[in-house]
Design brief:
A hairpin with a 2-residue loop joins β7 (about 160-165) and β8 (about 170-175). With about 260 residues, the chain is α+β, with helices and mostly antiparallel strands. It has helices spanning about 1-15, 35-40, 70-75, 80-85, 85-100, 155, 205-215, 230-240; strands at about 30-35, 45-50, 60-65, 105, 110-115, 130, 160-165, 170-175, 185-195, 220-225, 245-255. It folds into two domains: about 1-115 and about 250-255, no CATH class; about 130-240, Gcn5-related N-acetyltransferase (GNAT) (Aminopeptidase, 3-Layer(aba) Sandwich), CATH 3.40.630.30. It is elongated, with a radius of gyration of 20 Å. About 40% of the residues are buried. Strands 1, 2, 3, 4, 5, 6, 7, 8, 9, 10 and 11 form an eleven-stranded mixed β-sheet that branches.
C-alpha cells in the first residue's frame, strides 16, 4: 500500500495547494497561483509554505496571483528551511499586504503532517475500541476539548471511534471532512482526544490504531496533522506507524467578524 498511499497524499496536497508536487526538482522552490474567492470561502489562506519531506529538500508555495511575481522573487534560491523561517514569512506577508490591500491576513504556526503508508497494527488494550453510535452520546467523564464524537456529524457515517471502559468513553477519534471534497473517498483526517485522567495509559494509541485500520479497510489513506511543537501528538502518530510527509507554515485569510 505504501506507494499507493504516497501517491494519493501527493495528489491531495497538490490539489489543495495548487502546486504540482510531481513537477518539482530537487532543491527547487515552486510557486503556483490560487483563487482568492475559494480560499476566502474555505477560510484557508493565500500562501502555503510546504516542506515536502519524503521527496527530499524541496519547498512548494501556493500564492495568490496578485503577489505571484514578488513572492517568486523572494523564494528564488531559498531552501525549504529558509521558507519556513519568520524572516521569509514576514517578507511574503508584506508582499501580500501590498498586492491585497485591506485583506486581513494571519501568520500561522509551523505544522507537521503524517500519513500511514501501510497497514496499521492491531493493538491490545483493556478497553473496548469500537465505532460510536447515537446511543453513546454523553458518555464522557468530565470536561472535554472536542465535541463528543458520538454527537459529531461523522458519527452518522460510522466514522467516529471510542475506547470504552465499561460504559465510559475515555478516548475518541472523529473523522474530519477533507478540505479537497473530491478526494473524500480516498483521504481520512483524524481528530483525537483522550480524557485527561486517562492519558498516558495507551488508550489514545489504541483508538488511533483502531480508527486507522478501519479507515484503511474502507479504502482511505489516513492523515494526521499537528503543531510542530506538539511532541505528544507527533510521538503518537509515529508509534502507530505514521511517517512524516511535510512541514508547513501559512499566511491565512482571516474572515471579518459578523
Amino acid at each position: 500500500m505504501s506507494n499507493h498511499a504516497r501517491k494519493t497524499v501527493d495528489r491531495f496536497i497538490s490539489i489543495r495547494t495548487g502546486v504540482s508536487i510531481a513537477d518539482l526538482k530537487p532543491e527547487q522552490v515552486a510557486v503556483a497561483t490560487c483563487d482568492r474567492r475559494t480560499y476566502a470561502e474555505l477560510g484557508k489562506g493565500f500562501v502555503s509554505l510546504l516542506w515536502i519531506v519524503h521527496l527530499g529538500d524541496r519547498a512548494a508555495l501556493s500564492v495568490h496571483p496578485s503577489a505571484l511575481g514578488e513572492v517568486s522573487r523572494l523564494a528564488w534560491g531559498r531552501s525549504p528551511d529558509e521558507v519556513l523561517e519568520d524572516a521569509f514569512v514576514d517578507q511574503a506577508r508584506a508582499a501580500l499586504a501590498t498586492a491585497l490591500p485591506g485583506v486581513p491576513l494571519r501568520v500561522g504556526d509551523t505544522g507537521i503532517s503524517f500519513y500511514h503508508p501501510g497497514d496499521a497494527p492491531a493493538l491490545q488494550t483493556d478497553g473496548q475500541v469500537r465505532v460510536l453510535t447515537a446511543a453513546d452520546k454523553g458518555k464522557w467523564p468530565g470536561p472535554r476539548l472536542y465535541m463528543s464524537a458520538a454527537e459529531h456529524p461523522c458519527a452518522e457515517r460510522g466514522e467516529a471511534f471510542g475506547v470504552f471502559l465499561g460504559d465510559t468513553c475515555v478516548a475518541e477519534v472523529i473523522t474530519h471532512e477533507p478540505s479537497v471534497k473530491e478526494m473524500a473517498h480516498l483521504i481520512a483526517e483524524d481528530g483525537i482526544e483522550v480524557a485527561e485522567e486517562y492519558r498516558g495509559r495507551g488508550y489514545g494509541k489504541a483508538v488511533f490504531a483502531g480508527w486507522t485500520r478501519y479507515m484503511q479497510q474502507r479504502g482511505r489513506v489516513c492523515l494526521h496533522g499537528t503543531g510542530l511543537d506538539n511532541a505528544a501528538s507527533i510521538a503518537l502518530a509515529r508509534s502507530v506507524g505514521y511517517v512524516e510527509y511535510m512541514r508547513s507554515r501559512g499566511i491565512a485569510y482571516v474572515p471579518p467578524e459578523e
